Amino acid sequence: MSKRDVIFPPGRQALYEKNRYSPAVRANGMLFVSGQVGSREDGSPEPELEAQVRRAFDNLNAILAAAGCTFDDVQDVTIFIVNPEANFQRIWDIVQADYWGAAPHPTVTAVGVTWLYGFDFEIKVVARLPNG
Question: Model's pTM, two decimal places?
């Protein structure tokens, strides 16, 4: 059995080791990124929804950068939203304005959930490695 090629963003390895999962794994020219939430360095959530979304993207972008990728390399996105009826448009406005970039866009699946371990938003992606 081969070992996983794990990617750790700078300064967050202890948090991932504490919670026992890999932030991202490289395999077959692709990067599989675990769901990223709006957590601070100590793992606590940003208190406001907009700040959580921005922090989740900052955390995601740190992982992508550690693997030599950018959001332009992302092929597939899954977002999880607590209370999507109330929060989806607020989240989507931030995402489209500040993070999404120009077309063509990645595929997207949005899932409404009831609980995210104290968070309101999570983003999980699959990216193509530039030299993959």
Answer: 0.93
